[in-house]
Amino acid sequence: MAGIVHPKLVNPDEAKALLAKEPELVVVFDRNVAWVLETLLGDLPPAKACIGLETSEESKTMETVLALERQLLQADASRNALLLAVGGGITTDLAGFTAAIYKRGIRYANLPTTLLSQVDAAIGGKTGVNLDGYKNMLGAFCMPEFTLLCPEVLRTLPEREFRAGEAEMLKTFLIGDAEAYSRALSGVTPQLLRRAASIKADIVSRDPYERGERALLNLGHTFGHAIEHLSQERGDDIHHGEAVAMGIILAARLSERTGLAAEGLAERLKADFEALGLPVQSPYPPRALGEAMCKDKKAAGGRVKFILLKAPGEPVIQELTVNEAIDDLR
To answer: Among 25, 133, 141, 247, which is disulfide-ready with 224 (CB 3.0 to 4.6 Å)?
Structure first.
């Protein structure tokens, strides 16, 4: 991925103009949002192939990627093809990873249809699938040609999924814009959506392979991925954004208990999140979270880089052992 440039964020008209120039377009879409194809792509030349998916964390596996690879072969997709992903973060992760390894790599672009994917998952070129219930253990960095930001496609999003996306938006503002964080507590606007997407795109452009600053985007995710793993293992129903919300509160508590943040940060964020209808209390004990975190792909030599907060807009990367982290949460 030499020569990475700033992730490209486009509006619907810009996306249509770019797609109209593609001689070989293949679409991978979440069947739940098939209506988006006609709404946004209906006046474009027919795609070479349209491949529908039934998406879930359980289907976000190498088996699904291999099935997509076979369908690309059956469609006789060449190395000049552009793979367009239409759906939420699971769809864009699957399609991006498929594009990264098909014929040693083809281009892809994202048309994200959830708030979470428009402000986070579909930006930055991280692609991947789960392995044995652990999040995104297999994957590749593969930058999309562009990501379409379109608030209009969010109109049919269930409230619970919209709230989960708000958690990722708030995470981004806690990292990079304390003033925007305060405004976002009053509701999501197109301007705030683009601001959150731009913050992530800026960070990615400076650190595309997560060798430094990009790790800040994992605020809430180390705890959050552990919560998601336990949720799947135990048959509970916790969305990614909900797990991130709980993880941010745990990270804020850890920030206080390590002396990084002043007392009261966790309670302030907890009140903010509760007012938006987000869950804030992990249903799992620290010891169980610790066991799951030991399997996290970011764990190295028994140590994990936790993203903590001095205050909103002031994140810090701090390396701790899992035991040090969970001991502080008891």
So the answer is: 247
